[in-house]
Specification:
two-stranded antiparallel sheet; binds NADP nicotinamide-adenine-dinucleotide phosphate; 40% helix; 272 residues; 10 helices; alpha/beta; eight-stranded parallel β-sheet
C-alpha cells in the first residue's frame, strides 16, 4: 500500500477504513473483513462508541501491531490537559493497544486554548502512547493557530473532502505547513454515485464513480478513509491502485466542486 510521509517521521497508508456509524457486531465483522482483504489503516474515535469492537477485530486478525496504522480522536468536550490524558488511556484500553499511530483533536473548541491540548499531546508522544498527532475539522486560520501553538509536529488535518467539496485553499495551506490532509466522507456518503462527470471518467477505466472519486483524492495528495460495511464495497474501495487519472481528467473533476458540505454541526466554524 502506498503511504504518505507524515511530518512526525512516520508513514501513513493512503487508504484506510472509516468506522463512523459502525457499531457492535457489524463493526467487528466489517473491520475483520477489511483486515483480511488487506486494509492496514483504521479510523475510529472515542465518540464513535466502537473502539472495543475495533480492538477485538484487530486482536482476532492476528496481524502484527507494527503492520497497522490506527487513528483515534479525542472528543471536543474533553480538550483540557487531564481530560485528554484520561481519554487517551480509555481509548487505548478499549482498543487493547499500547499506542495509537495518530491521535487527533476531533473538533476545535473555542473554550480551550490549543496550547493546553497540545501540551497533553506532547506528553502522550513522550510516553510513547501516541506516535503522531493532528487535528480534524480545522479551517485555514485554525490550521495556522495549531502550527503556531504546538511544540511537536502537527501531522494531519482530517476534513470533509470529495469532488462536491474541493477545498483547494485549505489543501494548499496544509501542504505549505507539511500537514497531510485526510479526506473524510470521501464518497460524499453516496451522493455522487450517479454524477455525470465521474461516470464519464469511470467508463474509460472500467471503474465505478466511487473508485474515481477515491483515486482523484489520492492523486491530489490526500489520504482517504471511506467507510464500508459490505464486502463488495470494501473490495471496490481497495481496488484503486492499478490506474492513473490523466491531468485533464483531474482538472475536469476539480471543476465539479458544487460546495456541498455534508457535515456541519452547530458548533463548527467553517469559512464557507
Ligand atoms: P463515506 O465514506 O463518504 O460514505 C460511506 C457510505 O458509502 C456508506 O453508506 C457505505 O455503504 C457507502 N459506500 C462505501 N463504499 C462504497 C462504494 N464503493 N460504492 C457505493 N457506496 C459505497 O462517508 P463517512 O462514513 O461519513 O466518512 C468516512 C469516514 O470518515 C467515517 O466513517 C469516519 O471514520 C470519518 N469521518 C470523520 C469525521 C470527523 O469529524 N473527523 C466526520 C465524518 C466522517 P456500506 O456501509 O453499506 O458499505
Amino acid at each position: 500500500m502506498q503511504t504518505a510521509n507524515l511530518s512526525s517521521g512516520y508513514e501513513m497508508p493512503v487508504l484506510g477504513l472509516g468506522t463512523w456509524q459502525l457499531t457492535g457486531n457489524k463493526c467487528k465483522s466489517s473491520v475483520k473483513k477489511a483486515l483480511e482483504l488487506g486494509y492496514r489503516h483504521i479510523d475510529t474515535a472515542w465518540i464513535y462508541d466502537n473502539q472495543k469492537e475495533v480492538g477485538e477485530a484487530i486482536k482476532e486478525s492476528g496481524i502484527k501491531r507494527e503492520k497497522l496504522f490506527i487513528t483515534s480522536k479525542v472528543w471536543t468536550d474533553n480538550l483540557r490537559y487531564n481530560e485528554v490524558l484520561e481519554q487517551c488511556d480509555e481509548t487505548l484500553q478499549q482498543l487493547q493497544l499500547s499506542y495509537l499511530d495518530l491521535y487527533l483533536i476531533h473538533w476545535p473548541n473555542k473554550a480551550v486554548d490549543l496550547k493546553e491540548t497540545f501540551r497533553a499531546f506532547k506528553k502522550l508522544v513522550n510516553e510513547k502512547k501516541v506516535r503522531s498527532v493532528g487535528v480534524s475539522n480545522f479551517n485555514i486560520s485554525r490550521v495556522r493557530e495549531a502550527k503556531e501553538k504546538s511544540e511537536i509536529p502537527v501531522s494531519v488535518n482530517q476534513v470533509e473532502y470529495h469532488p462536491y467539496l474541493n477545498q483547494e485553499s485549505l489543501l494548499e495551506e496544509c501542504k505549505k505547513n507539511k500537514i497531510t490532509l485526510t479526506a473524510y466522507s470521501p464518497l460524499a456518503r453516496g451522493k455522487m454515485i450517479n454524477d455525470k462527470v465521474l461516470k464519464s471518467v469511470a467508463e474509460r477505466y472500467n471503474k465505478t464513480t466511487s473508485q474515481i472519486a477515491l483515486r482523484w483524492l489520492i492523486q491530489k495528495g490526500l489520504v482517504v478513509i471511506p467507510k464500508a460495511s459490505s464486502e463488495n464495497h470494501l473490495k471496490e474501495n481497495l481496488d484503486i491502485f492499478d490506474f492513473e487519472l490523466k491531468k485533464e481528467e483531474m482538472e475536469k473533476i476539480n471543476k465539479i466542486n458544487i460546495r456541498k458540505r455534508l457535515v456541519n454541526p452547530g458548533f463548527s466554524e467553517f469559512e464557507d
